[in-house]
């Protein structure tokens, strides 16, 4: 028996749904050691699901910053790097771009850049994983 586990993400803005394969399993005969998932398979499955879901959430969040909300002009990127974010299910690699401020908002002021995740932490109250027994680390 071949088993394929997928995550289907339906976009709210009318985009096509995104299908990500998370795991593939093969089972032959029905034996006690092949019944259900092993602990290693379950951990791998959770890690894959978490990576897929969080990557989609971060991508949707970053898309809101792609253009200026005032003039609609696309923002330029200073750079992009990956950050490692720790969760209860393991470490995740997330995109972390630096975007320049739009000139329309900074008339006569210094032109700077920022990572959108820093604004999320400022506005969301910096949710932490402390309740889950993890060291304090703000989410985005």
Brief descriptors of the model:
elongated; 2 helices; 140 residues; alpha+beta; three-stranded antiparallel β-sheet; disordered C terminus; two-stranded antiparallel sheet
Report what the structure shows.
The protein has a domain at 40-132. It is 24% helix and 29% strand. The chain contains 2 helices and 5 strands; from the N terminus they run E-E-H-E-E-E-H. It has helices at 39-63, 116-124, and strands spanning 2-9, 18-26, 77-87, 90-100, 113-114. The chain is elongated and about 65 Å long. The model is unreliable at 121-140 (pLDDT under 50).
Helix content: 10-25%
Lateral arrangement of strands in the main beta sheet: 3-4-5
- What's the shape? elongated
Total helices: the number is 2
What can be said about this structure in brief?
This protein has 140 residues and is an alpha+beta fold. Helices cover 24% and strands 29% of the residues. The protein has two helices and five strands.
């Amino acid at each position: 028996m071949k088993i394929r586990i997928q995550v289907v993400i339906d976009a709210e803005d009318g985009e096509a749904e995104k299908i990500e394969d998370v795991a593939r399993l093969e089972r032959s005969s029905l034996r006690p050691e092949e019944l259900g998932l092993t602990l290693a398979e379950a951990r791998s499955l959770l890690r894959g699901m978490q990576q897929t879901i969080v990557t989609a959430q971060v991508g949707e969040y970053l898309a809101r910053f792609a253009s200026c909300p005032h003039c609609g002009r696309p923002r330029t990127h200073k750079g992009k790097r990956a950050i490692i974010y720790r969760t209860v299910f393991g470490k995740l690699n997330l995109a972390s771009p630096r975007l320049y401020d739009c000139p329309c908002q900074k008339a006569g002021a210094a032109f700077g850049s920022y990572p959108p995740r820093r604004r999320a932490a400022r506005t969301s109250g910096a949710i932490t994983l402390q309740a889950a027994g993890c060291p304090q680390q703000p989410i985005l």
